[in-house]
Amino acid sequence: MAKKLVIVESPAKAKTINKYLGGDYKVLASIGHIKDLPPNQLGVDIEKQFEPRYILIPDEKKPNNKKIVSELKKQAKESEAVYLAADPDREGEAICQHLKEEIVKDKKNTPKIYRVRFNEITEKAIREAFAEPKQIDENLVNAQKARRVLDRLVGYMVSPFLWKAIGGRLSAGRVQTVALRLIVEREREIESFVSTEYWTIAANLSGKFPPDFQAKLYQIDEKSLKTSNFSEPAKPTEYHIKTQEEATALVEEAEKEDFIVQSVTKKERKRKPVPPFITSKLQQEAAKKFGFSASRTMRIAQRLYEGIELGEEGPVGLITYMRTDSTRISEEALNEVRSFIRENLGDEYLPSKPNIYKTKKTAQDAHEAIRPTSVNYTPERIKKFLTDEEYKLYTLIWKRFVASQMSPAVFDQTTIDIKAGRFLFRATGSIEKFDGFLKVYQESKDDDTDEDRELVLPEVQKGEKLKLNQLTPEQHFTEPPPRYTEASLVKALEEKGIGRPSTYATIISTIQERDYVEKKDGKFYPTKLGITVNDLLTASFNDIFDETYTAKLETQLDEIEEGRLDWREALKKFYEKFIKDLEKAKTETKEKIKIPADEICEKCGAQMVIKSSRFGRFLACSNYPDCRNKRNLNDKLLEETCPECGSKLISRKNRYTEFIKCSSCNYVKRESTGFHCPECEKGEILVRRSKQGRIFYSCSNYPECKAVFWNKPVDQHCPSCDAKFLLEKQTKKEGKVLVCQKCGHKQTAEIKQE
After folding, report:
1. Tens of pLDDT along 343-358?
2. Which residues face 632 on adjacent strands?
3. Lowest mean pLDDT across 230-244, 433-447, 636-650, 666-680
4. Is this structure's pTM higher than 0.85?
5. Which residues pair with 630 in a beta bridge?
6. pLDDT at 174 over 80
7. What CATH number is attached to the domain comprising 40?
8. Which of 44, 196, 458, 483 could cysteine-pair with 478, CB 3.0–4.6 Å?
9. How many domains does the chain have?
10. Does residue 36 sit in the same domain as residue 127?
């Protein structure tokens, strides 16, 4: 029997670690957190300095949790030592603390309890961690406790305010509401944006030597051409071409001038590689390159970190810990990647010294950057063991890490200034001289720019007269700021210090699940509900849901983690402001807020509004109680009218079926098989869905006729017993066949129906 017990969060991680430990160790998984605040109570004793009351997570929230904890306690009693090896962050530390509390409940025969932390799941890292086990870091536990209590106070005390003010089971969150606010404010910027017209002029020119090239108008009377920031009037040093008439007049004037080369500037420009990934940058790049959501990226990275089966090698942890905002790399990893670059790419791709990247001041430097555990596990070498999405993400991490330690790319940049009367045209070309790190990795750009474009320019001399081939004016209109995508929202949250990179995936998922925002073509749009919730919360709690204040709270959590701030003191200051705002909001918000819908009531012409009940949200007439019209939120009003009463028909879709019904009477039109009921011969057989989503067929004459079939009835007599119909079935062996329900006769479905 194993003498030492190791507890991790996941079975995959347990399997990988077990490979590196001897027979004296038994590795089990807690399957994540085992304790949390109670689901139906505040669970925070405000009078006792915000002491949280953690309980074992009920089985309905986490299946078999009690059984898991019971087994861990049993195994701990039979062990001489217990090693708590959850992830090396706040959440991992809290898991370890809760495991320790449960294991030492019984003071008799309590084993020694240690905390082990490792940044990567490799044999070397595991053995080093177990050789010098530590104790649980109380500061990390307190930081997690403070964050959990903050989130519970906001969520549990503000959400009921939303229910009363708007209706429905809505939720507020300390960070999710700020993320929603960014999206709503961006939408309003777009709505209020006034487009401005401006023109540019391009000259196609020829010199003594080919090729022809293009130069853009850069200055008029030594005033720079204005092509941005039109919300501000043009400065005395700027020239704004506003109309086609003005652009045409300038073209006609410039065409009369000689185009003379004023200067030729050549310089070498180096482009340095980008740092290895931190969590937020990995989420952004995976979104840009593959369209992965932040949550999907983190799920894949978790699998790569915990271990992938590599054939005879067994489970191998392929990347370092994926929740980090540090760009630091270990000495061992640096030496390995530098050797790899020298041997596989050549000395010219290896800088004389390792590239060292600065980590921002607010970063937690406990972990390295995200990198391969060994650069020798090249993507192609292990491709056959990975799923498509695992291969894509691992390749991205591997290439970025290798490129981060390579030589800069070198470009020859040439700038030609051409004088034409009072006009100055400029042509810029950048030609790659040495690919450097670009041989391995090219970072995605946020916008399409001309940077590093390989525009080949001819050899020209100062004072040379150029031939003007064509002068072309081009109309432009300024565009509003773009809507947020997964990548740009993560970038904004990171830059503003809102939340932590490890929480971005959850934040983005939550605001979509709550129906506060919706994603169309990869961009976030606030819903009517989201806008209403945002406006109410930001008006009532402007400080708490302000991005600056939220960022300040994150800094305080970091200070608690570092032992520089007492967690209770931080919560006390927050709560004093928060409770005053909450009481004021309750007093000022007396009437229920109506959420306007983009639809008009078909009965009285008033605007429809979105309402909520315990069954969900629905559309109702704002003229209630004079007009009691209401319908499902997903209903679509059709131009077609009811054949029985003449009212408009509605297309209704739910999780069970899709059908058309009358907006006034009981008329319902369902999808039909076109086959009259063989039992009552009055109704027709309609297509329906059960509550489990399974398709079945029943008579439209229900409840008078209760004919129902799980297989589609076909209007074809049975050749054996002369039954009036056959049933169409799909089997794996025979494909589609027709079967008689009465005698069991079976035939292929290709036989023509009568």
Report:
1. 999 999 999 999 999 8
2. 618
3. 666-680
4. no
5. 620
6. yes
7. 3.40.50.140
8. 196
9. 4
10. yes
E strands of 622-693, at which residues?
Answer: 630-632, 636-641, 648-653, 658-662, 668-670, 672-676, 684-689
Q: Is residue 636 part of a domain?
A: no
Give 215's contacts (C-beta < 8 A, 6+ positions apart). 202, 203, 205, 416, 418, 425, 426, 427
- State the Cα–Cα distance between residues 291 and 522, nearest whole angstrom: 8
673: left (phi over 0), alpha (psi -120 to 50) or beta: alpha
664 inside domain: no
Q: Report the range of poorest mean pLDDT among 23-32, 329-338, 455-464, 697-706.
A: 697-706
Contact assessment for residue 77 and residue 84, using Cβ atoms and an 8 Å cutoff: no
Same domain, 284 and 364: yes
User: Of 404, 435, 465, which closes a domain?
Assistant: 404
Q: 3-state class of 126 per DSSP?
A: helix
Q: Does 491 lie in the same domain as 450?
A: no
Residue 654: is its pLDDT beyond 70? Answer: no
In a domain, 740, yes or no: no
Active site residues: 321
3-state class (DSSP) for residue 586: helix
- Full DSSP string of 170-210: ----TTHHHHHHHHHHHHHHHHH----EEEEEEEEEE-SSS
Among 588, 619, 637, the domain boundary falls at 588
Q: Is residue 134 helix, strand or coil?
A: strand
Residue with tokens 């490799």: 122
Percentage of residues in the chain with pLDDT exceeding 70? 95
Q: How many CB atoms lie within 10 A of CB 145?
A: 23
Can you give the length of the chain in residues?
754
Please state, as a whole number, how many other Cβ atoms lie within 10 Å of the Cβ of residue 375. Answer: 19
CATH number at residue 331: 1.10.290.10
Helices 294-306 and 11-20 pack at an angle, to 10 degrees, of 30
| CATH code at position 180 | 1.10.460.10
Closest Cα to residue 104, out of 76, 79, 134? Answer: 76
- Please give the residue range of the domain that contains residue 230: 197-272+409-477
What average pLDDT does this structure show over 658-676? 76
Cα angle value 113/118/124 (rounded, 5°):
110
Give the CA distances from residue 194 to residues 182, 244, 476, 477, 754, in Å, rounded to whole numbers and listed in that order. Answer: 20, 19, 14, 10, 67
Tokens at residue 304, please?
Answer: 């790569």
Same domain, 511 and 568: yes
Based on the domain organization, do 117 and 27 belong to the same domain? yes
Q: Are residue 19 and residue 125 in the same domain, yes or no?
A: yes
CA distances from 473 to 242, 244, 457 (A): 12, 8, 22
CA distance 487 to 495: 12
Same domain, 268 and 413: yes
Burial 446-457 (b: 16+ CB within 10 A, else e): eeeeeebeeeeb
DSSP string, 41-69: S--EEGGGTTEE--EEPPTTTSTTHHHHH
Range of weakest confidence among 33-37, 176-180, 495-499: 495-499
The answer on 251 and 102 residing in a single domain is no
Cα–Cα dist 726/633, whole Å: 39
Q: Which two tokens stand for residue 271?
A: 């482009």
Task: Report which of 185, 213, 181, 220 is spatially closest to residue 199, judged by C-alpha positions.
Answer: 220
Query: Rounded to an integer, what distance in angstroms lies between the CA atom of residue 430 and that of residue 453?
Result: 6
Q: How confident is the model at residue 240 (pLDDT cuts 50, 70, 90)?
A: very high
Instruction: Assign 452 a pLDDT band (cuts: 50, 70, 90).
Output: very low
> Is the pLDDT reported for residue 297 higher than 90?
yes
d(CA 306, CA 12): 6
Are β-strands 223-225 and 238-239 bridged in parallel, bridged antiparallel, or unpaired? parallel
Residue 629 domain-assigned (yes or no): no
Peptide bond before 354: cis, by omega within 30 degrees of 0?
A: no
The tokens for 623 are 């003229």
DSSP 8-state code for residue 273: P
- Rounded to whole angstroms, the Cα distance separating 401 from 278 reads 11
Tokens of 141: 């536990």
